[in-house]
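INPUT
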Amino acid sequence: MNPTYQPGEVEARWYEVWESSGSFRPEVNPDGEPFSIVIPPPNVTGALHTGHALDHTMQDIIIRRKRMQGYAALWLPGTDHAGIATQNVVERELRAEGKTRHDLGREAFIERVWTWKAKYGSTITDQMRRLGDSTDWSRERFTFDEGLSRAVRRVFVTLYEENLIYRANRIINWCPRCHTALSEIEVEHEDHVGELIHIKYPFTDGSGYITVATTRPETMLGDTAVAVHPDDERYRDAVGKMLLLPILNREIPVVADEGVERDFGTGAVKVTPAHDPLDFEIGQRHGLEQIVVIDTEANITRAGGPYVGMDRFEAREAIRSELRELGLLDSVEAHSHAVGHCSRCRTVVEPLLSLQWFVEVQSLVDPAMDAVTSGDTTFHPRRWEKNYLNWMENLHDWCVSRQLWWGHRIPAWYCDACGETIVSMDDPTECSCGSSDLRQDEDVLDTWFSSALWPFSTLGWPDDTEDLAKFYPTSTLVTGFDIIFFWVARMLKMGLHFTGQAPFTDILIHGMVRDVETGAKMSKSAGNALDPIELIEEYGADSLRLSLIQAAAPGHDIPLVLDSIDAARRFGNKLWNAVRFVVEFMEVSDVPADGGYPEDPGPEDAWVLARLGEVTAEVDRLLDAYRLSDAFGLLYNFAWAEVFDWYLEMAKSISGADSARQGAMRQTLGVVTRDVLKLFHPVIPFVTEELWSHLGDGTTLLIVASWPEVPHSESPAEITSLQGIVTGIRQFRSQHQIPRKAEMPVIVTTSDALPLWWYNQVASLTGATPRAGDRPDPVAGHTRLSADGVEAFIPLTGLIDVDSERQRIAKSIAELEASIARSRTKLDNPNFRDRAPRDVVALEEQRLAETETEFEKQRIQLSELD
RNA sequence: GGGCGAUUAGCUCAGCGGGAGAGCGCUGCCUUCACACGGCAGAGGUCACUGGUUCGAUCCCAGUAUCGCCCA
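OUTPUT
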C-alpha cells in the first residue's frame, strides 16, 4: 500500500466493480423490505454543480446504508428533458450555423434535439458516476421517454375529463425572449428602483383631472378605465364620470372597485385589463374592454396608435416625454418595486392576456395538505411544513402550456369545421361532426408537468408493474428548498390524485451550497460555481462528499470552503494510513465481513468495543433522524481521536504481549477497523471499499456488507484514570519542555490496586516509568496529578524549576476557587435546593466536594513548595 | 408590506435550559518503528443588544439592530 492515499485511480476502479457486480440493484437483497428514492432528475442539458453534489451525496448516504441494512434499496436515476433549457441550447447551436428552429421546421428540430441528447445527454450521468452515486442504472428514466410520455398523456386526458384542466384567456407571464408563457413560480421578482409617474387624466366635461400613479406608463395605451376604492371620500363624486385618456383621446370611465389599494399613489389607478392581473379582475367585474397594446416581442401593437412597433421600454420614455409636453405629467418620484424576470434568461417578463391551458389546482390541494398535516408525509426539518402549507393555501391555477417545440405536445385537437376540442389518449382522425380537418394544439406542456409524475411514472404507471407495486410509494425524497413549490408540492398533488397515496413518506430538505466569498447560490447560470468535477480531480470524490455533508446542518445553507475539502482529504489520508498500519504492521487481515468479535477481549479491547457500540448506536439514531452532518461528525472524531489514536497507540504495546492477549487485540483491531469502514462507507464509499479490500477476507464487497451490529461490551473503569493521568503527564512534559527521552519516574497512589495493564499503558503512552507507591511525605518536590480517584506524583528534582511549577499550581488553584465560589452560591440558594431537579442538586454537591478536595490538596502542595 | 432564518473563537460553522464545541488558522515542542496530509500540548469567546420567564438562559419569550432568503 502507498504511504499516501491516491483517490484518482481507486475511484475509477471501484465504480466499475460495483456497477458490474449488480450492487446498485435492489435485487442484491432479494428478500429485503423495499426502500426507494427517486432522484430529482437533473436537466439533461446540465452539468453537475456543487448543489447536485450535496443532494446526491445525501441520497447516496441514505441508500447505501439501507442497502447494507438489508433492504431492497432502489435509488432510481434519470434526467429531465427540461423544455426551455434544452431548446435554448440547441437553438444556440443552430444560431452558430446561421439558422433558426423555424428554418428546420418542428419535426426536424425535434429530431435535432434528440441527436443532441444522444451525443451530450450523458454528461451529467457520467459525472454522477464520478461522484459515486449508487443509482440503479438499469432503471434509468427520462421524462420524455416513451413510458413517461404515456403517463403524461394519461394524466392530461384524465384531468381534462375531470374538468381539472381547461383552456382560457388569462393574464399570464410572458417571456419575450423565450417566446413562451411561464408559470408564476418561473418568475423571479427583484426590487428595482424605478419611477412612480403621476399622470393627469382630464374629465371629459372639463371639470379638472384625476391623477393616477403608475410605474408602467406605456400600458396607459391599453387603459379602459380608472378605478378608485368605493369608500374613498376623495373620489366619491368622480365615480361614474368619464375621462379622456391622454395621447389616444379615448373616453374611459371612473369605476369603483374594492380591489384598489387606497394608500398607493393617489388612490386612483389606471386600469389596463390586458396587461395586469389585478386590472384584469377589475375589468372582469366592470365589463371593461381588454386592449392588448404590447405584443409577444414586447413591442407596442397597432392599438398603441403612434407608438406602434416601439419597444416597451423606449415607449415608456417616449410617452413620459409626450405627457410632459402635454402638461399632463404631474410628478415623477423614485420608487422601489418588484419587477418580474424570467427564471431562465433574466428577461423582464410581460404580463399578457393570452389563450393558454391551465390546471385547476384547488381540488388537488386539500389531499396534498392533508398528507402533510396528518403525518403521512413528514418534512425534515419540520419547519418547512408551515412554509409548504402556507404556499398551498394561496395557489392560483397553473398555466401549463408552453410555446415551445421540445416537450410533451398537448394532446388536444381542434376541429376547424365545428370548433370542437378533442382530448384523447389516441390521436383522433375525425371529429364527431364528420370533419377530418383536425389541428393539434401547437403547444407543449410545462416541464414540471412531467416531473410532477416522476415518483410513479418512473416505476411504470399507468401500468400495474412489479416495480410500482414494490417501490411505490417511495420512502424518502431529498431536495433543496428552492423547488418545494415547483416540484415537491406538485408531486404530492399529482401522486395523491392518481395513485391515492402520497408519493413519499419523508422529505429531506437541504439548503443551497453557497460561495463563501459572495454568499451567492452556486449555480451554473450565476457563473460562480466551483466545478465539482475539478474538485473531485483535485481532492477526490470522497473528500468533496464528506466536506459537503459535514457542513450541511439540517435545513441551512452550506458554505463551501476549499479548506474544508482539504481537511476531508487529509482525513482520508489518515484513515488510509491507519488501516495500512493495521494491515501491514499489526498484521491484521482476512477480517470476516461480519461478526468476529473477540470472545475474551482484553481490557483495552473491551473499552474500544464498548465505545464502538455506543458510537454505532448514536450514529444510527442520528442517521434515522436525518442528522447526517452530526452523525458523521461524531464518527469522524471517534475514528480519529479514539480508534486510530488512543486505541491504536495502546495496541502497539500489546503487540509485544503474550499470544492470547495479542490475538484478542488483533481480532479487536480487525473488527473495529472494519466497522469504522462500514459506518463511514455511505459517505466516503471509495476509500472505505479500497481499504476493505486490503483488510477483509475477500468474500464480500463493502457496498453490500452488513451494517454493524456491535455486541455489548463492558468498558473497564480504569480507562478514565488512565487517560487522565496520561494526559496529565503529557501536559506536565509539554509545560516544562521536558524531552520524551528524559527519564520520568511516576509514583501512583490509589485506594484500589490498579491492574498491570494500566501501568504498562501509562509507560507506553508517555515514556514515563510509573510504579505503585505511597504518597510522598512531604509532597514537596513533586508535582501532583489526579484523575478519577487516582493520584500520581512526579519528582521535580532536576526536571523543572520550582517557580514555573508554583505558577502552574497557583493558576489551577485560582480556577478551583472560582468554581467553589460558584457552586456555593448555587447551593446556598434555598430556591435552588427546592426547585431544581434532585439529580442536578446532587451533581452540584458532588462537584463542590470534589473541587474542595482537589483545592485542599493543591493548597498543601503549594505551601510545601515554599 | 407579509413570512422564514441567521447573529457563538481570527475564519467557516455546530450546539440550544444546569460550567462553551469542531474544522481551518495561530503559538510551543516532537523528524518516537502508519500518517509532518502527522503527534503532543497551548492561546483565543460579556454566545449581537435590551428587557422578561426561571432556582438557573448562549439556549425559552418579547422587543431592538444588522444581514440573508422566500412571498406580495
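end of record. The first strand of chain A starts at residue 34 and ends at 38.
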